[in-house]
Amino acid sequence: MTRPESDRLVMKFGGTSMGDLERIRRAARIVAAEAASGKKIAVVVSAMAGKTNELVAWTDGAGRPGQGIELSDDEYDVVVASGEQVTSGLLALTLRNMGLNARSWMGWQIPILTDDAHGRARIEDVPGEVLGAALDKGEIAVVPGFQGVTRDGRITTLGRGGSDTSAVAVAAALGCSCDIYTDVDGVYTTDPRIESRARRLEKVSYEEMLEMASLGAKVLQTRSVELAMAKQVPVRVLSSFIEPDENGVLPAKSGTLICDEEEIVEKRIVSGVTMSRDEARITLLGLSDRVEAPADVFTRLAEANVNVDMIVQSQARTEGAVNLTFTTGRRDAPRAAELMRAAQAQIGFEELRVDEDVAKVSVVGVGMRSHAGVAQTMFRALADKGVKFQAISTSEIKISVLIDAAYAELAVRALHSAYGLEAV
Amino acid sequence: MTRPESDRLVMKFGGTSMGDLERIRRAARIVAAEAASGKKIAVVVSAMAGKTNELVAWTDGAGRPGQGIELSDDEYDVVVASGEQVTSGLLALTLRNMGLNARSWMGWQIPILTDDAHGRARIEDVPGEVLGAALDKGEIAVVPGFQGVTRDGRITTLGRGGSDTSAVAVAAALGCSCDIYTDVDGVYTTDPRIESRARRLEKVSYEEMLEMASLGAKVLQTRSVELAMAKQVPVRVLSSFIEPDENGVLPAKSGTLICDEEEIVEKRIVSGVTMSRDEARITLLGLSDRVEAPADVFTRLAEANVNVDMIVQSQARTEGAVNLTFTTGRRDAPRAAELMRAAQAQIGFEELRVDEDVAKVSVVGVGMRSHAGVAQTMFRALADKGVKFQAISTSEIKISVLIDAAYAELAVRALHSAYGLEAV
């Protein structure tokens, strides 16, 4: 499905692009250039870089209770949402000062309706009428990202990185595409700081981007990609370090377009290699080989909202026992370990080990669906470099391996080369 | 008219009392003590001290146009109103952390309806139903001061010092009195930094407070006193540097009660002496003695929104000419002088002088209405100290004189003593 080209456009600027008045002016010049080219524009902005952290620290200090977070997160949202309110007003002022017609629209004014899961709310609906009417009368609408409002009128925030999701939701409401200006100039085959031969992808499918985002490529927040896929919003990731020329015209858009798989003519087997250090490996040694034992372990973790990614079970040295290994997010690991230790007697295991010195390396590509041999290439490339893997997980379009962290960069470079990503 | 004692109470804390998390906790302890005594409470808060200045500076930098301020002040309000949003959320969190039931109510949630004069909006209506219902179900309502919302849903701010006005408006809506916690412990007969024998007034009438506020006593914003008088809201000014005792009980309330004249049993002729350095004196020498000339001058000033306070006309040395002296606020003086110079030919005067080295010293008291000799005492006291006055203005309850700034403190002390204020 390709949607007809719209004369509307959503532009999103992150915290770095809103970091101070000079950067806000730079963003405003980019907006002005798009407006001059005839686009009707809504701009979604993050808070000034660092500001959200300051506000969150204040709420922590004011006594956001450790246990009863739920209780207080409505007021947390009141405090933290103010950061984007400030930048949206400042950008509107800056645009006006350049002679443009602009105004800010708070989440409660549009409204950006969310559920009431304060601190990590999900957008439920964004009516496009009010913003659409503003755009149609020639106004540039400036919308604070990250914030919304419940149906009974309380301020909410969407959780970290939520501004990308706001931008996609506004684009869906306006029936147009979304340009995300950020401090990188697109999505790469892998992290260029690890592999200098990494190449920018011109296009990447929603599915691939979703895997890359959740596997550690930090360009876009996972939920924003999910929403873009669900609503078929074309998203372009672009560098904010550009300037219109002397005639106020922007350079031709490069960056990376995130779009439907069907719109990508040149199909690749593997589009990218990702690496994440946000994992921890927990091993229960000498776990009872009762069939209920693993279920007991994972039920306890699920009830405590600990997400488990990879799972490996192997034979233990002790007769009638197994070793159970699983991975969690690194932040959840201490809590998961605590849960296991507290229930050691009930679960029945001999020893617990936590290893944070691990990395998850993944290859992602929609071409895997129709090509055999992808896993084989991966395992051979790793074996050639002497990299052992401790666990594997796969989906239709990705293969991930857990390895010793010391080998992470080596593995990324080996895989990048094995799939010929620098040459495509 | 004395209103029946209400079980509701509005408490207001200024920017110093909200300056950091420790001060917010102190304010919360005072609120908790009032709640424990059985009061149903709404708290009105200012932004953290210094925060509003930072936000205003950002809007200036973003290009709040010098000439076209009107055009942009809606976005100025979006930015600047965020300061109180932050403190109201933080105070609500702090109160919850102490086990109290509290929530914040933004101006648009209550709503605090204002006109659309952005940056200096006037409150038009505060429906008491929503807040009243919250209080009646045992919730402490935390309300950001200084902010409101227009009838078409845009954020407004009330201008500097507007949080006092917010507090009085909320108290009027809730039908109760208003305690204003500040960094002074009440209203004094004069500025204690000038006259150490200044005495705190236990009660002062709305009319007197209004004169004192507009004459330079900076305890309360003038508009908050006007509103309190119009709505008959008793306002108490109190020190925020108090602590509940070990049983959570506050010390007996002292401070100053601002109330109806009829509730003040002990009538004084003069209640206070004020001094202001915010004046400038402008003299047009050799002004044509055409009868239209002064009208021409004051019409031009009025059309430029320059308020004129005192006016003195005297004979000039030149035949057929007069000297016209008037005072304006110091901030307006350069603009007023510019206006006069630009129209020198049309108005017809020889020379313009601006003198900012002046002070206005005033005595205020409702007792003047029924007592003769107040002015006489003033002039004799000044004459005894060799203080000449350059202009006089009077109202029913005050007499002001403009003097050389060098004599200001001397004059204040002389008048404070002449009316026996330290001895009452």
Description:
Chains A, B: Keywords: Amino-acid biosynthesis, ATP-binding, Kinase, Lysine biosynthesis, Nucleotide-binding, Repeat, Transferase. Chains A, B: It catalyses: L-aspartate + ATP = 4-phospho-L-aspartate + ADP. Chains A, B: Its EC number is 2.7.2.4. With 424 residues, the first copy, chain A, is of the alpha/beta class. Chain A has helices at residues 21-36, 51-62, 69-80, 82-97, 129-136, 162-174, 206-214, 222-231, 292-303, 333-342, 344-347, 374-384, 408-418; strands at residues 8-13, 40-45, 102-104, 113-114, 123-125, 140-144, 147-149, 155-157, 177-182, 203-205, 235-239, 256-259, 272-276, 279-288, 308-315, 321-329, 351-355, 358-364, 389-395, 398-404. The longest helix of chain A has 16 residues, at 21-36. The radius of gyration of chain A is 24 Å and the shape is globular. The A-B interface holds A 21, 24, 55, 58-59, 61-65, 71-72, 74-79, 81-83, 85-86, 88-94, 96-98, 103-104, 106, 108-109, 153-155 and B 21, 24, 55, 58-59, 61-65, 71-72, 74-79, 81-83, 85-86, 88-94, 96-98, 103-104, 106, 108-109, 153-155.
Biggest sheet, spatial arrangement of strands of chain A: 3-6-2-1-9-11-12-10
CATH class category of the largest domain in chain A = Alpha Beta
> What sort of overall outline of chain A do the alpha carbons produce when their principal axes are compared?
globular
Fourth-tier CATH superfamily name of the largest domain in chain A: Acetylglutamate kinase-like
Oligomeric organization of the protein chains: homodimer
- Biggest β-sheet strands, sense, barrel of chain A: 8 strands, mixed
- The count of domains of chain A is 2
What's the tally of helices of chain A? 13
- Terminal CA distance of chain A: 26 Å
